Amino acid sequence: MKNFLFLCAICLTLVFATVIPTKAESLQMGVSVDTVPISSSFDGTEIVIFGSIETHEQAALFRGEYDVVVRVEGAPEDVIIRKKERIGGIWINNKSENYVSVPSFYSILSARPLNLISNSIELAPISLGINNLGKNVPVEGEKTLIMNPGEFSDALLRLRIEQDLFSEIPGTLKQLSPSLFRATLSIPANVPIGEHIVTAYLFRNGEILGTKKSSFRIEKVGFERWIYDLAHENSLLYGIMAVLLAIFTGWAANAIFRKN
Question: Which candidate, 225, 162, 227, places its Cα nearest to that of 36?
């Protein structure tokens, strides 16, 4: 009887192993730091994102049929883009466009240009790539970035690129071996404070096979951290101190120049 039950257990295991196959491809990923400290002398830095491709298709792996794309996003924010026009000889803000859930920081790291890895049918629904931002399907009850073609959307992207807050540069991801990859992320001096989400996508023949997520934080340290926390957590006290400092500075300047 025991032998019969043992044989039944083995058969059931083999059946389930056949019916529920293991996933063929997956990603592993890590970030070189958990926190990037920001002080008054901070002028930008670089961090490393590394990982591996895990697959049973070893032949396809050695043929280079897989691509990895890494996206880094800062916390979303609302943005207003204004257009100045000359009316009655005076330049004023005449038109504007509001955008919600704009990434405060957005960077794409890849070995090849995105258009050589996949097409807009795959990339647009997940807003992968600067040109695909705001093209994903809105989710009911959630703020979703919508960017209709036009001068305001073009201006938003242009300004963020000029500020080094948006970037998409092929070659920032290197294949160290058929399965290992390494990406270098450049962080500008004006990087926004807060959590940044890192998402890696695995592609083959233009299709997304898997994703992996991680994150890191940008934090102020030292005196800058104290001022930042005071301004955001106790704005009244911060305002009073700013006024008193301005009064003292004005008084001191007046006293020095009067003495001279």
Answer: 225
